[in-house]
Structures
1.
Amino acid sequence: MSCARPLSWETLVDWWAADLDEAAASEVEEHLLGCDVCSAVARRVAATAEALRTMVPPVVRPERLAELFRGGVRILENPIAPGQTCDFHFPKNADLAVHVLGGLVLEPGAPVEVTLRSLSTGAVLGHVEDAPVDPQRGAVYLACQRDYAQLDHDLVAEVRVGKDRPPARYTILHHF
Amino acid sequence: MLSGSDTALPARWYRLGPMRAEASDAALLTAIAAGGAGRREAERALCRRYAPRIRLYGLRHLRDEERARDLVQTVLLGVLEAAREGRVREPEQLVRFVLGTCRNAVLRLRELEGRAQPATDEVLVAAAGGEAPRDPVNAAVLLRCLGSLGDRARRVLELSFHEEMESEEVATRLALSRGNVRVIRHRALAALRACLDAPAPGNA
């Protein structure tokens, strides 16, 4: 298999992101329908982009959770209060667990930052500036998936509302 | 409908099985239009060749695996029907015929927002569509790989592909130029792919 005029990775990413004009997109599509080499590369672009599109991010918007629920995803909520340490056993009958980091006093316009750390090593596992919140419940939703069994099981989530206040801490000891 | 008159042409010609996968589009179309013993084999080869490519087109335009599979079925059924009736006027331009059929089918699927109607050759075509590779990504690996990117690269990827923002919007959000967003985006996506493909730590 070979291709005399292979499409570049850049072109394929632009195509997937709908960032080519109509004529250029059409040219790419015609080439891809006739070329195994380039369509194999394009499938790698597509698979990577699709993984991003369909991922459930660690800090998840309430609307996204509602969408997943409507799509049949079995979601279990685990409410936690600031300062609390909880043992959490990932249930067999759930597809997704959501730690509801509650007890937050949210002010309109105040940025919310979430930092995830390993309790044992202190390593930062993730940091989200301007994290999505549920203003009605005064909570941040932390999504937990079965695949996360590969990551550190002991987790500290720090949620800071505004720049000046100390963060609320939630400690979750996962059992998969 | 498939022809039942499979004995009209010399069987020897159609028994060149190993060559079939390499046969040109024009040769496959000729064998399909001719009917006879080789038709089914040529149809299978044509479906195997085009199903993954049509699925890719479908994923790009419909952003949904199931609807992309529907598209594969709809398009292949249309192409096979046209091939049997000898309606593909320029066999060397089959790609363009498939592309036109894809475009029309996407428009129809968007209008209908439903599944394609079952058809008589569903099994043949579905089998070809089923060969399309799927690439499930482990959520923990994805998270780890995203974490290995710089903040700006990760944000560009998240906004572009998770939030599905256009590059102009991403540029405004992150105070970058549109050209800069595109460069960061393709480099970050390549780095992410490389990380996803790398052996897991400890398994190297």
2.
Amino acid sequence: MNNSFPRLIDGMCATLRTEVLSRLDDEFARGQVFGVINLLNTFKSRADWSTDFLSQQLSVQCHALEQVRALIGNVAHAPEVAKLRTPQIVSPAELLSLRDSANLEISKLLDWLAKAKESLPEATALAIESELRQSMRREIEIELKNSPRPLFAEMSSGQESPN
Amino acid sequence: MNEELLPVQIADYLQQQTGHVVQVGPLKRFAVGFSWKTYLVPIAGGLPEADGATELILRLGPSDGLFAPYSAMPEFLSMRSLESSGIPVPKAYWASDDSETFGAPFLFSQKVNGAAVVPWVPVNTPPLDEAYRKSLGAEFIDALAALHAVDWSDRPIAQMAQGINIQNAALTNVLYWEKQIERWAMRPYPAAQWAIRWLKNHCPVAPRVAIIHGDYRTGNFLEENGHITAILDWELVHLGDPHEDIGWVSMPMYMGGSSHFCRLTEPEWFYQRYSEKVGFQVSMASVKYYRAFSLLKLAATHMAAARCFEEGRFNDLRMPAMGSQIATCLRQLEKTIESPL
């Protein structure tokens, strides 16, 4: 795929709006198309090409270059082969799992704090609560920063909004 | 549930109920609603047993829908309870939780003329015409106050009382929705857990136990020429603290970028007019409490939408879009709890 991910999403949304919706009369079906557009817009801000897919390609390339470097190591006037390393890439699945584990830990600590608050020095209890809630707040802010405007009006009416 | 067979199945069912042949025309499915499926059912020649109606509304609660399994009974009992109450509610004709007939619980009701005012509008949408807004706003407040003033104790909805009283109404609700979150959330949400703890520790006493619509807002009533013709979508109806519906009405996501509840009423006007009509003074502490509760309930609904889609229960593409709004609800929830009265 040679086009950028965001540009492809823009193209898909534009096609659905100009080529599909303009020829579609059924209200429910139109609502579904707006649902697709809404999701595509979410992908645009949160997704990109799979790192697994790119890692596989890069790994093959690095392996080939390593092999060639070894083969031409003693050859006179051979070109220098660049040393590339496959970076340690954490998969999205691992990141999601880590995020959930962290949230579970935060939930447990909030539960504990609610029960233990009275027995803790006030400043300590406040500082712990502040840290935990700040982290909850920041997680939500980051989520919202990466969310497009929802198309609820369009999805429930099947009609394009005036703007 | 086979939608192609549905017109024939409807004709058969109506024939069983009325004892005569009923001819059903092509169905139209509405885009509205995120859980029950809603169809317009044309009836050739009209149906005497349904006040001569030439069109009926059929609502089907599919087994794979949001918060399924469904029961048609809360909606049916509430609509029956409100007949002749003066509250604009469509007449309910037939309903059943038996999935043999259409593959899902169902409800046939009156088709009422009118259009829904959309609660979600783009940022630059001009406000509603002032006279129209005030006319509709007044009826919006009055209908809610009238609903909360209904003496339900001798009406069909009393079947749903289940020991609820002014002391336990809030906690009963929080525990119910906590269970819903445990059931539907696909990952831990510390912000929701933190809010549930706050809600459990701040339960208000209800001024009375009333019929609660459960989803009272623009989008869930029809209007014609500035007058409400029907209040719809009673599937979340239950008995509880009247402030619960006010909390739902006051959620920021239904203000459509305006400073008006549900794009219709100034908050002060709402509180004053509602208090006069309902017969008790609105408690601002309870409104804040139930606004927070409503945001938790909405977050739970979005969690359920995301999970149902993820598990392949359905492919309705509006559901994952709803699921993306959990963070919005949780942010507003924290803000509400932290806000002064």
